[in-house]
Amino acid sequence: MNIAVAGLGHVGLVTAVAMSAIGHEVIGIDTDEQRIAALQYSEPPYFEPGLQEELALQVRLGRLRFTTDPETAYVGADVVFICVGTPPQANGEANLIAVEGAAHDIGFWAPDGCVVVEKSTVPCGTHKRLVIALGGNSRLDVAANPEFLREGTALKDTLEPTRIVVGAETEAVHRVLRDVYAPLTDSGTPYIATDVATAELAKHASNSLLATKISFMNMIALICDRTGADVTKVAEVMGADPRIGKEFLNAGLGFGGFCFPKDVAALSHTAKALGVHTTLLDDVLDLNDRARDAVYLKIEDALWNIQGKQIAVLGLAFKPDTDDIRYSPAVALCGMLLRNQAVVVAWDPQADVAAQAELPKLVIADSPYTAAQGSDLLVIATEWPETYTLDYERLASLMRGRVIVDARNVLDDWAREYATKFGFTVIGVGR
Ligand code: UGA
Q: What pTM value is reported for the model?
């Protein structure tokens, strides 16, 4: 099928590459000319494992093209995926201006019978506005097809999803989307058909529940810190119950990234506007801030005075395997330390340049050991693989202090005990 993808960010570019990889003719459109120019040379605008290779392959095969021109993108499209950004406004409400802009162009250029699919995460009810922005006629059909990919495993999540969720009002539209996804459903991926509003809400609800699990565990961690219980073992016990599930029970520095913080805030905003009580969601966000504050207080407690102390921070990205620092708790923690006049020497294999642009006072190190050199304390802020296998003997020979704050609970009992052999005190979160 001929597929156009509007907006080539973290969701759009992966969608375009994946659609091409399963055999469709794909054209990606973005308003950013530099981005399009780079993509024509198969250069993705961000780091995502495996993406560059697959992008280059699809471009070489001639199935994937890029443009900034709406006519070129939409005029022959059977299906258009809207993947433009929906950033938060100050009150938490999603900003849908880019969705509206894309819809105007699609409404003008797309051919009769084209199916326009919301893939961007949007508040429940957005499709009604979308229909109007597309021109308010029945020439084009609208569907919602939320994306559940995670940064760091985005391509795999898209090509091997746990489920394909499509909201549409007619069986004819479902038929088109079933055709689009046939290569995936044929190999066993379930296709969940709903109405449009349900699909829209399912995405916000999924992300909000995952964020709730994390904040819940960060609350339990605060109780553990005061009682001597071990939050990692509590999570193990809870996760053994299939009704709870073991995923997303890791306490630590809190959640970040461009999805959970904005989606919880957006769902809270939508619910409030509908007169639905949302203190649960507000507490999820509040507990997330407290998780970061709790780590800051552990550092302060260990060092007494922060001012003038040198602190090594391992990890800046909001999670491993990405260079994304949007809403990164690690960057937020560095910001707090810098504001309190610590010298922060940070290492991150992908996100260092972006983080330094946000925090110019950050000193960047090229390895965990360079960061540790002369430091009074070391914080593990993002669980990159390198943080699991630190050489404590080497760290002890380099650092001035002997404290490790494991803000992601990456160190197991063995590693913690091993570190103590070299004089380190290891402080975890809720253990
Ligand atoms: C999230 C969802 O997991 C995806 O399903 C969804 O498609 C995506 O948002 C989106 O809406 O686009 P992502 O933000 O890439 O994906 O990353 P996650 O792996 O979900 O992690 C989010 C944050 O939660 C990270 O900061 C991570 O460190 C934190 N986290 C995760 C914890 O603190 N504890 C955990 O147990 C798990």
A: 0.95
